[in-house]
Amino acid sequence: MQRAMLKWNSVPTQVITQGRWVEEGLSEYGKKDVVVVIPGNPGIPDFYEGFISTLKSRLPSEIPIWVVGHAGHVQPPSNLSVTMPKDSTWNVNYSLTAQLQHKIEFIKKYVPEDARLHLIGHSIGAWLVLNMLKDDSISKRVAKCYLLFPTIEHMAASPNGWFYTTIISRIAFFLIFLSWILSLFPSFLQLFIVSIFAPLHGVPLKSNKALLQLLNPHALKKIIKMADEEMIIVKERDDEILSKHADKLWFYYGNCDGWTPVKYYKNMKSKHPHINAELCKNGYHHTFVLQYDKEMGHLVGDIINESLS
Description:
Layout: E1 2-8, E2 11-18, E3 33-38, H1 49-58, E4 65-68, H2 90-93, H3 96-110, E5 116-122, H4 124-132, H5 136-139, E6 142-148, H6 159-166, H7 172-183, H8 187-197, H9 208-214, H10 217-233, H11 239-244, E7 249-253, H12 262-271, E8 276-279, H13 288-291, H14 293-308
Helix pairs in contact: 1-14, 3-4, 7-10, 8-9
C-alpha cells in the first residue's frame, strides 16, 4: 500500500493505493481497468485500508485501486513543506461542490483516457459519483459505478440527519474546541487517549491513525462544515441521472442505516425498477469500514469481477 499527499486544484490531498501508484499510470499488459474510491464524510483514505486490501485480493493483479481523500480532510504532516489554502477560500477549495470538481480533476489528471474506470462511492461519495457522470469526459470512461450505502436524497430528513442537525451541528464549536485541546498533547499521548475512548464508540484500534486525522481541529472544522452543506444540498433524488446511466449503476443499501432508511431503497426501486440495487441482508453498518471492511471488500470485488468478464 502506498500513500502520499498530491496537489491538484491547489489543495494537497491524501491518496492511498493498492497496486500501481497513480503517477505510474496503468500496466502495459493485462486489463486497462482502474478502481477509484470516493469516500464518505469524513473523506479520510486511511479508514478504507482494510476495504481496499481485501478488494485488491479479489481482482486481477494488474488492476490498481486508488482512494482519493476529500480536500482539507487530511492535513499535511508537519515534516512536509506544503500549506493548505485558507478557510476563506471555502467555496473554491473545500465546499461540497468544490469536492465534486476536485474529484473530476483528479480523474482527468491521473486516469489514462483509454482506461475503463470503476467508481466506488461510499455515502456522500455516491452523490459525488452520480454528479461526476454529468461530465461527459468522465461518463464515457466509466464502466460501472458501485454506490455503497448511498446518501443521494433527503439526508436531513433521515434519522441520522435529524440527530446531526438538531444536536451535533449545535455543539460543533465545542467539538472542534475539544479537538484543539487534544492537539496540544504529544502524539503518543493523543494515541493513548484515542486508544482508550475509541473502542467505547465502536471504532476499532486499527482505525486509530485515521481517527487522529479526523480529530485534527483544522480537518474537523472542514468535515463538519461539509456535513452542514450536505444537509442543505442533498434533498431530491436526481432521477434524470439515474435513468440516463442506469446500466452503469449498482447500489448497495443497508437494512439498518440511519442515513439511508429502507424506505429510500424502496422508493428508488419503485421509480427505477430496472436499476440494479440490493438491500443488505447481513446487517452491515453505514460505517462498514470500521467493522465490515473485509466483508464489503469481498462483496464489491466479486461484483467488479462480473463487470470485467
